Input
Amino acid sequence: MKIIREYPNTFNLPKRIEGLSKIARNLWWVWNPDGQRVFQFIDPLLWDLVTHNPVAFLQKVERQRLNAAVNQPAYLEHYDRTLAAFESYLTNTQTWYKLTYPDLIDQSIAYFSFEFGLHESLPVYAGGLGILSGDHLKEASDLGMPLTAVGFVYNHGYFVQHLTEDGWQETRSALIDYSKLPLIALMDENRKPLMISIDLPGRRVYARIWELEVGRIKLYLLDSDVDPNSPSDRQLTERLYSNDLEVRISQEILLGMGGVQVLRLLGLNPTVWHMNEGHSAFLAVERIREKVKTGMSFENAMDQVKIGDIFTTHTPVPAGNDQFPLWLIDKYFGNIWAELGLTRDQFIDLGRQVQPWGETFVMPVLALKLSKRANAVSELHGIVSRRMWQFLWPEEKEENVPIGYVTNGVHTRTWLARRMGLLFEKYLAPDWADRLDDPDLWKNVFQIPDEELWAVRRHLKNKLVSFANERTRLQWQNGLLTPSQAVAGGVFLEPYSLTIGFARRFATYKRANLVFRDFDRFMNLINDSHRPVQIIFAGKAHPADEPGKMLIQQVYRTVKDSRSAGRLVFLEDYDINVARYLVQGVDVWLNTPRRPNEASGTSGMKAALNGVLNFSVLDGWWREGYNGKNGWPIGKDMDYANPEEQDAADAQSIYETLEKQIIPMYYERDQNKIPTLWLQMVKECLRTLTPQFSLRRMLKEYTTDYYLPVIKESASIQ
Ligand SMILES: *Cc1c(COP(=O)(O)O)cnc(C)c1O
Output
């Protein structure tokens, strides 16, 4: 079948710079500062106003400004250089993957995720899981991997957060206008949207397919807001993480079973099927069904399908796992198990778990049973996961449960401040970005002169402070804030104090309020007028998480308390944009999960590669990253039986380390007012953590430990 690709938007650009439309329509610019600056230079205010969205920018920018740019030789030089870099990136065939595995370039990898966090202008992600998927695609593009991804475009996005005067989280939906996104509509030969369909109880539900180009990678996004569907089915893909279980199971059927159809329709026949979390596990059911239809037995079909599947688990909290009551499985799969040649009980067995509240159908159980290979996302999370899922392998000892681990990483250039990149270029190597996972390269960070590093660090903190000021000014002007809320928004922030960042989802186990435990000691600590400390909080609670929202409220009340003197700040609406300012601009990144609940965590890695020092519980990635001189631990490398005891010990550890180590080291300056000991630690942090916690290291590990074994084993059964 012929597939037509159509852009839902057109631009009217001067001929000399019409290549801007090409740059705008591929997310390559997200991790290439030059690609952002070709737009920003034309109208910096508009660039901020459209949330750094090139498509919206080109639709709104005044012709006068475009003409002015065409008359600036410096701009044209920048434009030509950027367009050439973009085009040579796309056409380069000598990529790492191609050079390393020339025989395997035709064996494609499918990557499924419920959310993709690629950029703030595309709010189809909620948090860490989505950011990881987004970073995975960017790095797969950089390495030239034959990977194709499938997800959803949620037209109401994830919610926008606003806090009431009393700190109660209010939510607005982030309605997305597709014509302002770089989406490509896939159409059939009659110029009708290309669609797939799934059978749900009593009806057929359709979804159209959008394509998004992420460098060399294609991401296909499903959208049920199409004509043949009933109004309620059109809303199926409206939001992320609905609490309505019927919506949720329908979405997961659409992603898993519908997603397989998408790839088939596009003529792809992936060898590797990577499920990022269990939400997409029905993809294996669909592939078994395909084989059973051709006459294969269920057992044979399952054995073959399992070889191709890789399941990455992210949830160390049993109650946090995605699961459905059995009556829902009866309702949604009652017609399907017969097609697979199974009885009801045999089908339920694929996902059955006995819980204190009864039996449920658990998506990670399904994913584990239908994947030959599975992994956790840090070493400690691997241990926790093998313990958690051992009941599925009753004959195996815990350490032999077949769940390995690949510690997460972050896509370096997405999160790196441009000016830090310039330092790396100058002192590491001009081509440092091509070798960023090579630990040897990073020894050269000690060549960076303290003055230059400190100048960049100060610049980034200044940028963060003015970002908080300006956002608050705008809200104030729009009548959205009381004076005390303006203080909470950061009007008293200044760039000279030691500044700590704490930004993450507000779930109770992350203990955002732990620093307040000994309130007077904490207030004395931040208000020492010779050595003041500022803390910036940010984060959303899931709309249905009442304890999480109460935690935000408690933090917000303390932030607004005049005793904190404006040194505590809450930045509303944590998203990729806010995250970027924070992980680049603060001095210290604080993380206080109740161990071992943090599977990996990634925000601390983003901070580290910008020279921000981590101060965190030895959980997830930091337990592997901390080496005694590249940041600070909270508490010890041990588990507590009693949470109350754990909280008390960790709070004590926070105060002591701040008082005795972090604050004195930050404020100790040489005759040029430079904190030399601090910068020594910053360099050690850059040297050790940047290569190790890069997505490049992570993706190469997935390739050698997971993707290649799947490809080899699949070839042997052909
Ligand atoms: C990185 C990131 C996260 C995940 O960070 P954690 O360390 O896992 O809490 C969540 N939200 C946003 C916007 C991020 O950028």
